[in-house]
Amino acid sequence: MRIFDPHIHMTSRTTDDYQRMHAAGVRAVVEPSFWLGQPRTSVGSFCDYFDALLGWEPFRASQYGIAHHATIGLNPKEANDARCREVLDVLPRYLAKDRVVAVGELGYDSMTPEEDDVFAAQLALAAEHELPALVHTPHRDKLAGTRRTLDVVRESALEPGAVLVDHLNEMTVDVVAESGCWMGFSVYPDTKMDEHRMVEILRRHGLDRMIVNSAADWGNSDPLKTRRVAETMLAAGYTPDDVDRVLWRNPVEFYGQSGRLELPETQAPGASEGELVAAGATFMGNSVLRGARE
Amino acid sequence: MTPTNPTTSTDALAEVASDPDTIDRHFPAAARTAAREGRDGDAAREALLLAVPGRAAYVVEVVRRVYDHGDAAERRAVLLALPALDDPDRPDPIGDTALPIVRDALRTNDTRLIAAALGPYAAAHLDDDAWRQAVLKVLFTGIPVDQVAGLGDRADDELARMVRDYAAEREAAGRDVPPDARTVLALAHRAD
User: Fold this and answer.
1) In chain B, whose CA is at the least distance from the CA of A258?
2) How far is B180 from B192, CA to CA, in rounded Å?
3) CB-CB neighbors (< 8 A) of B35 in chain A
4) How many CB atoms neighbour CB B142 within 10 A?
């Protein structure tokens, strides 16, 4: 089984996690830039963080046979701090980097005017840099926040297919399904979504534009939740090909719009040895590289 | 013009030669552009740095900025290009003025950067103390010592002492001494 975790904050995780993830089938991840728990007070802190997402963290991941990519952006919480707004000025430099596969996480936290401005400005940057956007939905007042998110996306230059709206649940999935945006689900031990509810949502909505992630970070979370969803899908009667679609091909298709994925060699379920997706191949302009140390 | 996938490699070189600041835009995209053209990304990035016109002091200023703003692959490409920037056939070779970049890379724990920092440029310019520490770091991090340029020429008694101590520490802990430690010792003794 090959798994692509399209949203996981590996900077907050240990090497044990990398080992367990690889053993569970995770071969590629996307790490969205986000809030670190402790508010930052200067642009320099962001630059060092972005540099780590494009330097040290991919190196760490490669040592465990996992391809690491990032999304770069100013998160909505810190968009409210005037000292952090200048991050918008350094973003173009980062959005030009090879392994940056989207702008994000963007979206709303408290739905302030500042958050409106920063969200819209970064959707414009995404369009300018030919990158998709990863948009998170707020914890509080979630349905209203999701509707407002979709309004801003509609007013932007991005196509709905270039936007992934994340952290959805039973209350918010319908409006996003209608919008044409991709639907992201963060499967957590206690909050957000769990694997059984996830399979129920797949049953009701189908597998199109469906993205499942662990969103594991510094809080109570589990980097193996993607694998748990795969197992729960199989137990519910989904085929290995269905699982591959949700946990590999869908995220590859979404982030592949950047043309900047660098995927390891992998094997689709049911494929014979000769059908290995080999190094040197390309997918929508993205590279397939020989796997890191296995 | 967008900073993403702006142009061909040839266009990028011409733009950097006439307006060096455009390297900020071309350098990050150079590996993607080169891959589309079936060319090597590191070589394309080296060519961009070599295209920066002007005196060594200015060239190094640009090289430093590109390094500071670079991701790991860009930084590695800068390190690999240092010998070419210091080529005596260039009108104004950079000499030892890019050493701060080498020192920065040697402070990291990224083996790709450490290995790239220890090419012919470090062999020619890095002071003895820093160079010996770097070789020891190579042994610690498992980088093959054959990637260290000029090892046979620069390995000296002091390096041999450091490596012997390292081997003794490993043995005292009941751990293997990496074969590369013996290689360094053999080279150091040959140099005596």
Assistant:
1) B4
2) 19
3) 287
4) 9
Could you say which of B71, B75, B109 has the minimum Cβ distance to residue A98? B71
Tell me the two tokens of residue A255: 């982030």
Residue A92 has which token pair?
Answer: 């173009």
Q: What is the pTM of this model?
A: 0.90
Shortest distance, CA A195 to any CA of chain B (angstroms): 36
Where residue B36 falls among pLDDT bands split at 50, 70, 90?
confident
Q: A105 and A34 in contact (C-beta within 8 Å)?
A: yes
Which pLDDT does position B87 carry in this prediction? 97
CA A104 – CA A132 distance, rounded (Å): 9
Q: How far is CA B60 from CA B53, B57, B68, B81, in A?
A: 11, 5, 12, 12
Nearest by CB to A96, which of B25, B72, B75?
B25
For residue A131, the chain B residues in CB contact (below 8 A) are: 4
Task: Kindly state the DSSP code that residue A157 receives in the 8-state scheme.
Answer: S
Residues A66 and A27 sit within 8 Å (Cβ to Cβ): yes
**Contact across the interface for A56 and B31, Cβ inside 8 Å:** no
CA distance A74 to A126: 12
C-alpha to C-alpha distance for B29 and A52, rounded to whole angstroms: 19
The Cα–Cα gap between B14 and A253 comes to 35
**Span A151-194, pLDDT tens digits:** 999 999 999 999 999 999 999 999 999 999 999 999 999 887 89
Can you give the C-alpha Rg of chain B in angstroms? Answer: 19
**What CATH fold (topology level) applies to the domain A3-260?**
TIM Barrel (3.20.20)
pLDDT reading at B157 higher than 60: yes
CB A6 within 8 A of CB A254: yes
Between CA A252 and CA A267 the distance in angstroms is: 14
Structural domain boundaries in chain A: 3-260
Give CA angle at B168 (B162, B172), nearest 5°.
145
Do the chains contact at A56 and B109, CB–CB below 8 Å? yes
Per-residue pLDDT tens over the stretch B115-128: 999 999 999 999 99
**A215-232 residue pLDDT tens:** 999 999 999 999 999 999
Average pLDDT over residues A108-118: 94
Return all residues near B88 (Cβ < 8 A) that are at least 6 apart.
none
